[in-house]
Amino acid sequence: MQFAPVLHAEWLKIRTVRSLPGALFALFALFAVTTAFSGIAGVSDTSDPEFDPLFMALSGVAPGQIAAISFGAMAVSAEYHNGALRLSLAAVPRRGRWFAAKATAIAVPTLAVSLLTSLAALLVARAGLGPAASGLTPAEQVRGVVGCGLYLTLMALFAAGLATLLRSGVATLSVLIPFILIVSFVIGDAAGTAVDFMPDRAGQVVIHETHDGTLGPWPGLAVTALWTAAALGAGAWSLRRRDA
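RESULT FIELD:
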């Protein structure tokens, strides 16, 4: 079977499995509401020398990445319920092709929703922050919106690869969400420069106006991409080696 019909079949699953559109809507809602609140309410002291208007405008990436991770994990874990994976592989015996189609079906809607919500959030937050956001250059704003969309897409794919390896959405979320919420922010600061190379911290540099760490915006996103490639590679290896 050619790649296009396999991709169409996987996209049909994304649209029809009840929980998956809900996860994408959660990505939109969490991101938009959080960033809009941050911008309109003016919760930060804009006179603070460390105030970062770009990060404030795109601060919804924190809850947004949880929704993206949940979407990626659930899209894969649905295949392990009620023998669905056996049916998928019976229709598409070439497991690599099927996995590539699954990853593409996850990446495309995540990227589209992430770009749309990050742009909307930036516009709303700029209006709320007023003069505090006037120093942002067009290049910084484009970098923030595009980088945010790419980062959330990479995190969804990272979760998809890990879910394929673990064969469980619950196990994947049990690993990734505490890692992002606890390890990266509580333990991470004690780890020195090593924390700069964690997948979430490295990727989020792209949504900061200024950066003082080891990595710049695009190198940081490249580090996240390497983590994602490793997770997808491990997932593909597991899919090839283990029975459905």
